[in-house]
From TrEMBL:
InterPro entries: Metallo-B-lactamas (IPR001279), RibonucZ/Hydroxyglut_hydro (IPR036866). Residues 38-230 form the Metallo-beta-lactamase domain. Gene3D superfamilies: Ribonuclease Z/Hydroxyacylglutathione hydrolase-like. The lineage of its organism: Bacteria, Pseudomonadati, Pseudomonadota, Alphaproteobacteria, Sphingomonadales. This is MBL fold metallo-hydrolase. It comes from the Bacteria. Residues 1-32 are annotated as: Disordered.
Amino acid sequence: MKVTILGSGTSTGVPRLGGENGADWGKCDPNEPRNRRTRVSILLESEAGSRILVDTPTDLRAQLLANDIHRIDAIFWTHDHADHCHGIDDLRPLRYGRAGPLSGFAASETVRRLRQRFGYVFAGQHGYPTLVSLDNLDNLRLCEGFRVEHTQMPHGPAQSTGFRFDCDGASICYLTDFSEVTRDMIELCEDTDVLIVDCLRREPHPTHSHLAMALDLAKTSGAGRAVLTHLDKSMDYATLSAEIPDNVAVAYDGMVIEP
């Protein structure tokens, strides 16, 4: 199994619009390619070739082209915030040539909100086929050869879904967009090979994890390795890499992880 970090940035990406010459890099070195971050998403791939996409961010088309991805088998959504779902229309070309829609999964409230906002994706419209068959996560245990576990996480006043995927003798947990750590989250990540974890900035934030919280979750859960993602413009790649433990890495767009 391997996972590709398609995007590693916060909701505005890095650089943020604005600043000198229209690009606000904050504390990030603009000459370091790994500081250029699109909105967060990952792609998992099994040894058998099955591919699972987590989230459809605003930058999805560019991410799939950059990583030469022209086929996926299923999509999971963490929640319905714009930076995690507003690239959903980019799934249309991935539906071409298929006998049926792609498989999609999310928690019940996220299912309701996605159906409300993107009805044509899940029901077809004006002669266009259904792109995704969307189902609730509750009864899902296996998908495309991956064992799937999940838990709901506090995300300020909202919630986000954290996932664990086991396949080919390895495990990867993906926990992004959370503002506090629960017992269920720790249990989900217990002894995982790789924990990809929300880490917006160094200072605490009302809706996201910060550096100390992310590192503490990695340690408490016993994760073999941790990868920090959903990074804002204050998190320079080289500076952050120099101050974290050896078993922790800073995510960057296009990063490939093999447990």
